[in-house]
C-alpha cells in the first residue's frame, strides 16, 4: 500500500534548481582549487587577494542548505507522509553513500601514508569519521542527517501556522543573527572542551544553518504565489 498520498497538483519543474546546482558546485570546486593554490604560495599581496576570493566562495554550503529545504518541501509538504518510510528511504540511501565514501577515502589516504595496516588505526579513524563527519569534507552529509531527523517537525510547524509563515521566517532570521553573534564574540572565550561534539564543533550543527533551510522551505511553499505575481506584473 502506498503510504504517501498525493494531495497536490503536478509539481512544476524548477529550472532554477538546476542553475543553483551549477553555481554551487562550481563554487565548491573553486573553493578547493583556491585552497590548494593558497597553501602553496608564500606570504604576499597576491596570496592575500586569493584568500579574499577564497573566503567569498563559502556561500556554497548555505546555498546548498537553501536548495535542500526548497526541494524537500516541494516534494513532501503537500503530501500525507509516513515519516518512518521517509527516514528509512533517506537514511538508507544517503547513509550507504556516506559510509562507502568514508571507507574508500580512508583506504586511499591511509594507504598513501603507509599506515593502513597499523594496529587498529584504520578502524579507529573510520569510527571517528562516521560518528563526527569531520573527515574528507563530508560534514554536510552529517548535517543533513540531523536535518532529516528534524524535517517532520518543520513540516508540522509550517502546516500548524499556515498564516504565520512570515513570522516563522522572521524568528528564524533573528535566531540566526543571535547564533552568529554568539559564535563570533562569545564562543571564542568559552572553554568548550567538555561540551558535546555537536555543540563544540558548531559547523557540524544543523541549527547554525537553519535560516537557509527555512528560507528554502518558505520559497517552496509560496513558489506558485510568487510566480503568479510575477506574471501579473509582466502583463
UniProtKB/TrEMBL annotation:
Per UniProt, what is the membrane topology? Multi-pass membrane protein
Q: Which GO terms describe its biological process?
A: enterobacterial common antigen biosynthetic process
Q: Which GO terms describe its molecular function?
A: O-acetyltransferase activity
Residue limits of the Acyltransferase domain? 15-231
- Has the keyword Cell membrane been applied to this entry? yes
Any keyword Transcription regulation? no
Its keywords, alphabetically, are: Cell membrane, Membrane, Transmembrane, Transmembrane helix
Provide the Gene Ontology terms for cellular component: plasma membrane
Xref: InterPro entries: Acyl_transf_3_dom
Bilayer-crossing residues are 20-38, 58-77, 98-117, 137-155, 167-185, 197-221
* Pfam families on file: Acyl_transf_3 (PF01757)
Q: Where in the cell is it found?
A: Cell membrane
Question: In which broad location class does this protein mainly occur, judging by the first location in its UniProt entry?
Answer: membrane
Q: Which PANTHER family match?
A: O-ACETYLTRANSFERASE WECH
Q: Which family does it belong to?
A: Belongs to the acyltransferase 3 family.
Q: What is this protein called?
A: Acyltransferase 3 domain-containing protein
Originating species: Enterococcus hermanniensis
